UniProtKB/TrEMBL annotation:
Ranges that cross the membrane: none
Gene3D superfamilies associated with the record: Class II aldolase/adducin N-terminal domain (3.40.225.10)
InterPro entries reported in the protein's UniProt record: Aldolase-II_Adducin_sf, Aldolase_II/adducin_N, Aldolase_II/adducin_N_sf
Every Class II aldolase/adducin N-terminal domain range: 25-205
Organism expressing this protein natively: Herbaspirillum robiniae
Family stated for the protein in its record: Belongs to the aldolase class II family.
Protein name listed in UniProt: Class II aldolase/adducin family protein
Alphabetical list of Pfam families matching this protein: Aldolase_II
């Protein structure tokens, strides 16, 4: 059995299409990868994946479960209003809907949204300068980040338009003094982007802790780095290979395969 068919013991429901089940497996892998890498915030935060169709339904984690308890079968299917489309024993966390439904409702090019606030990412969001672009990973993010001022917990619908305005046509939304949301056309690309943002934050935090002056990269070098990365990501195989490699590593480390 391919690792991308591994469903953590869950069976495909009779009413679930093969296309939706594949997406559910990928999203369950993504949740468990975030847990495996230590990027979770207990039961909080969200990863969402939009389902095909004009309804803009999307999948999200059941509130109260740890990320390593998420399976393809227990993921919630919700509408843009945050209401369950199918019955579940679980509820959804309302803090996720303002951000995720806003993006899924407007940006048809973005089908996966991952929100985290790891320690290095949250530390960077506190700085007025935000993400710097003077290291290998930070340079890949040049020109790709929108910044949104902190308004408290993202619970309220009236903040949606402001968050969308802050994101614009970019793929990374820094929620100042809070965390980050990365958005891409599929789960594999979104995970790769999150990994890049996390590495950039880790290196920036480590660099700030050291003495000495940083070497500043020219904007044209930063842009070249960002453009080359996007050329790789536009190749469907690159993000898939990366995603499947780390899923294999996780499953083997946990002796699940």
């Amino acid at each position: 059995m391919s690792i991308m068919q591994y469903s953590y013991g869950a069976d495909q429901p009779a009413h679930c299409s093969d296309e939706e089940w594949r997406l559910r497996i990928q999203l369950a892998h993504c949740y468990r990868l975030v847990d495996y890498l230590g990027w979770t915030e207990m039961i909080f935060n969200h990863i969402s994946a939009r389902l095909p169709g004009a309804e803009h339904h999307y999948l999200v984690n059941p509130f109260a479960l740890n990320y390593n308890e998420v399976t393809p079968a227990n993921l919630l299917k919700v509408g843009l209003d945050g209401q369950l489309v199918e019955p579940s024993d679980y509820k959804a966390n309302p803090a996720g809907f303002a951000l995720h439904s806003a993006i899924h409702g407007v940006r048809d090019d973005l089908h996966c949204v991952i929100h985290t606030h790891t320690t290095p990412i949250s530390a960077v969001t506190m700085k007025k300068s935000g993400f710097e672009h003077n290291d290998f990973y930070g340079a890949q993010l040049f020109g790709r980040i929108g910044y949104h001022d902190f308004e408290g917990i993202t619970l309220f619908a009236d903040e949606k338009e402001r968050m969308l305005s802050s994101l614009g046509q970019k793929h990374i939304l820094v929620l100042r003094n809070h965390g980050v949301a990365v958005c891409e056309r599929d789960i594999q690309r979104a995970f790769f982007l999150l990994w890049t943002v996390q590495r950039a934050a880790e290196i920036q935090a480590a660099g700030r802790a050291m003495g000495g002056e940083d070497v500043q990269l020219a904007d044209e070098v930063r842009q070249k780095c960002a453009d080359l990365t996007q050329q790789l990501i536009r190749n469907d195989g690159f993000a898939v290979i990366f995603f499947e490699a780390i899923v294999r590593k996780m499953l083997k480390a946990q002796r699940l395969v």
